[in-house]
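queue> holo job accepted (pyridoxal-5'-phosphate)
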Amino acid sequence: VTALPDTPDPAETAMAAAARARAHVAAWTDRQTEADLRRRGGLKWSGTDDGVLGAWVAEMDLPLAPAITTALHAATDQQLTGYLPLHLGAAVGGATAALMAGYGWRVDPEAVHPVASVVAAARIVLNHLSGRAAPVVLPTPAYMPFLAVPELCGRELITVPMRLDGDRWELDLDGIRAALRPGALLLLTNPHNPTGRVFSEPELLAVADVVTETGATVFADEIHAPLVYPGHRFRPYASLTAETAAHTITGTSASKGWNIAGLGCAQLILPDGTRDRWERIDPVEWHGATPLGAVATVAAYTEGGEHIEAVVDYLRAGRDLFAEELARSLPSARFFPLEGTYLGWLDLRDTGCAPADVQQRASVRGVDGEYCGTPGFLRLNLAMPHHLVREMAERLGACGPER
Ligand SMILES: Cc1ncc(COP(=O)(O)O)c(C=O)c1O
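queue> job finished
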């Protein structure tokens, strides 16, 4: 499926390489028809009825990074398909530390533990690395599985609705303060799915004050960190202060930015105080990261910089196109400014169309906000060719009282 761009010239300047990556990502993605995407066979399209646009699960229609396909070909040639070898686990630690250094966070590679997925990471944290007697506190709307995971781990869940200030979704600090207590765990997703917010440093510092004041801890899900648009800056929560470094366990992965969720390799980054507890966890609990996921992750984090910039560039243009087209086709819907991620968040409450009816009325499959804990809203995956972004916005016109 992935045509490799021309072989890079070792003497190519960084600027020329970036321009080449941008041209490749845009040309490749623009060329994809709906039939091509269905042939590719991913879940997003194979799980979507014929004639309906697939905008639900968080997979991208964009190409894989050439560095990743090269690394995967080499790994399969080498028949590296057994369990995760220690040297590859260590390589993931080193590559993750290198990525975090780019965000100004100095991470000890030995504090990085490869696990199968960020959701698996959250379960490990809930089951083994946080006080089981205290609640899990989750701002809503939220990534859907986080509404189920606490109960699956036998933990009490307290949801705290985010507040809307103008067009901006904000964390309700008073609500979070009231829900937290010593040992409680705040599930903090930044960049945020589904609102698309990239919380600013002052916002994160205000959260840190509340967490410190209440004696709680944080699981920081930063899986969307590479997908941040110009004008916004991602800061790893654990990197903010000595207190956040001590009270935070971070979960991250190359799986969203580089579109490799199926390869099974996320990273749990532990603070100093939890390393002994990690040693005591039965490996059965954390086993599951794969060698192919590890080589792809190392390639993404160490050689995938130009590609991710090109991806963000393409997604940003798609976001702007969608906003423009939707304002024409469905002005009664509200599309919130997307600061990061490719998951658009729409308020449909004034359209007269229930999110559950969108597929039937507009032939677009998104995610009903009810599954994110916030009825009346719709999450839409915008990581598709621009011609389909335009088509999706046009089709959504069928949801309005305007028609
Ligand atoms: C915020 C967030 N966390 C976690 C995940 C899932 O990650 P994984 O597949 O590594 O469990 C997603 C997937 O879309 C996500 O958006």
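queue> The pocket of pyridoxal-5'-phosphate is lined by residues 58, 117-119, 143, 189, 193, 221, 223, 253, 255-256, 261, 266 (CB under 6 Å).
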